[in-house]
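I am writing to request your help with a piece of structural work I have in hand. A protein sequence and the structure tokens that stand for its backbone fold form the material at issue. Please examine both parts with care and let me know of anything in them that strikes you as inconsistent. The record follows directly beneath this note.
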Amino acid sequence: MRSSLTLVLATIGVLSPSLMAVEGLGVKSIRIENDVVYFQTHIDKAHSIPSCVSANNNPYWTLSLNTASGKASYSLLVTAVSEKRQIAVKSAGDCLDASGYERAISVELGDAIAQPPVRANARAALYQGDRVTKIGEILTATEYQPGKFSYQLLVDVDGVNLIRNWSAYPYPSIISTLYYEGTDCTGRVGFYDNNPSGFMASPWYKDGKFLKLDTASQIWPRSQKTEMGICYQMSGNERVYPEVSYDYQLNHPQCGVGLCQVRVD
């Protein structure tokens, strides 16, 4: 199993004082290279780091995919990411999997990471891209094309609640993949110039701000990140474009500066 893959997911957890273990933490990143899994949790390790670990590698753990226990532990990591579960990691106290990296001897799944409760009387509402300007409360939502929605809203017009049919026009182009100039999804970010609507944005980049590309410049990406947060290495043979280097603001007639947001009030 020779591959190079990075997965990043924002989760949270709590720190345990247990010796040689990190309890109740969410997975922050996973990378596979040459049959070794490198992973990181969101909170720093609390135990004494083995002397074989390089300073820059302190946050990381390793597992070997050449062992049954390593494969089983990797499967648990994937489950922790997909189900947003806490994990406990126990150290082997050495760096046998990869020089300079602390080896994990076991991984244990914990409870699901707590999510903020939703009030019983909460209502979903549609907001402009600034996340402040409320368009209206959502009564119904209809997906009329894959990924495209129209809404029936309860809108406040001069203090009077009116029911209005609403859909974004022109419908913005939604970017699902981000392209990076460097490996491991680092460096400048680039995008394909595929923008028939005049408005394009990614929910995972700059809070969904509408983008203006510098088509006079080029990026030859070495990695890409999907909407699932998975980072893949690339050959660098494709061409994408960065944002313009100057300050700008594009204003959609209904959504404003960025993609409209559905929130629970």
Q: What stands out?
A: The mean pLDDT is 80. The longest strand covers residues 134-145.
